[in-house]
């Protein structure tokens, strides 16, 4: 099993002054019913203040909220039968829902976006479309979705809202974020249009927490179930944590709970996390 690889933790003067950090996490769970034991195990071991989940793959009535209540987490969720679905869990407090579904297209019924206030921070949890096969309608939908996301994020910037926009972006931002450029060169995850849309978010003023602390790359968040990808460490980075300027000023550390990918019946993603001065 490859060793745990977490991002560099950088001390913060504000952290020292305030005496604590707030851990906000994202985890594409790839089916909450199938992975519930692993999910509860991860929550117990790491105890994040906020945990955003993607690909819960269940309708709203099937979400196991009571299992999280037992261990002190309150949840809101936006489900869909067999596909997609996102949820926000908060330790000891109820997330205050702000937005369900990404604005900008009333015809879009896919459960990919959920936004809430938690501990004074706007948490924007997303599961961005994969876009394969490309070219084609699925790739067009991906790019249109990213354009809508940028518009929503611009609203947060304009209002100077402390925000973390996190989740499975299904974008490999740069060549340094993939084990093999050639293996993924035709995939929607690293097409120039996908990368350009992601880069525009950063240029608007958002900070990629993991990339900021790991500028040389080589940090993976996803390993396919096929071809021994996990055992060979053939992964790439598609789960991202973007920070508004106010949150970027509070950045203390960011990383990947890589070890959890190697456990029995694990998701094909590993959890990613950021710590902000509290």
UniProtKB/TrEMBL annotation:
GO molecular function, one term: metal ion binding
Bound cofactor: record note: Probably binds two magnesium or manganese ions per subunit.
Residues with site note (Transition state stabilizer): 170
Binding-site positions, Mg(2+): 28, 55, 168, 170, 268-269
Cofactor(s) in the UniProt record: Mg(2+); Mn(2+)
Domain Endonuclease/exonuclease/phosphatase: 26-269
Active site: 127, 168, 269
Matching Pfam families: Exo_endo_phos
CDD domains, A to Z: ExoIII-like_AP-endo
Gene3D superfamilies in alphabetical order: Endonuclease/exonuclease/phosphatase (3.60.10.10)
Positions marked as site (Important for catalytic activity): 239
Enzyme class: hydrolase
GO biological process: DNA repair
Protein family: Belongs to the DNA repair enzymes AP/ExoA family.
Name the record gives this protein: Exodeoxyribonuclease III
Gene name as annotated: xth
């Amino acid at each position: 099993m490859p060793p745990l690889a977490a991002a560099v933790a950088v001390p913060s003067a504000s952290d020292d002054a305030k005496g604590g950090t707030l851990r906000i996490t994202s985890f594409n769970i790839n089916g909450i019913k199938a992975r519930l034991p692993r999910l509860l195990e991860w929550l117990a071991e790491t105890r994040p203040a906020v945990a955003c989940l993607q690909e819960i793959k269940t309708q709203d009535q099937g979400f196991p909220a009571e299992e999280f209540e037992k261990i002190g987490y309150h949840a809101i969720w936006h489900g869909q039968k067999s596909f997609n679905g996102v949820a926000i869990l908060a330790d000891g407090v109820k997330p205050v829902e702000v937005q369900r579904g990404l604005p900008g297209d009333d015809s879009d019924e896919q459960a990919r976006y959920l936004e809430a206030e938690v501990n004074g921070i706007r948490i924007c949890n997303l599961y961005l479309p994969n876009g394969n096969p490309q070219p084609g309608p699925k790739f067009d939908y991906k790019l249109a979705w990213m354009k809508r996301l940028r518009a929503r994020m611009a609203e947060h910037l304009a209002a100077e809202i402390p925000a973390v926009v996190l989740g499975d972006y299904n974008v490999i931002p740069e060549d340094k974020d993939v084990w093999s450029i050639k293996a993924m060169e035709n995939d929607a995850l690293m097409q120039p249009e996908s990368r350009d849309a992601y880069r525009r978010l950063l240029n608007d003023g958002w900070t990629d927490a993991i990339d900021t602390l790991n500028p040389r790359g080589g940090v993976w968040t996803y390993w396919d179930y096929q071809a021994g990808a996990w055992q060979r460490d053939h992964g790439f980075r598609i789960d991202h944590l973007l920070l508004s300027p106010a949150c970027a000023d509070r950045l203390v550390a960011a990383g990947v709970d890589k070890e959890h990918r190697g456990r029995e019946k694990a998701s094909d993603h590993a959890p990613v996390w950021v710590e902000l001065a509290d």
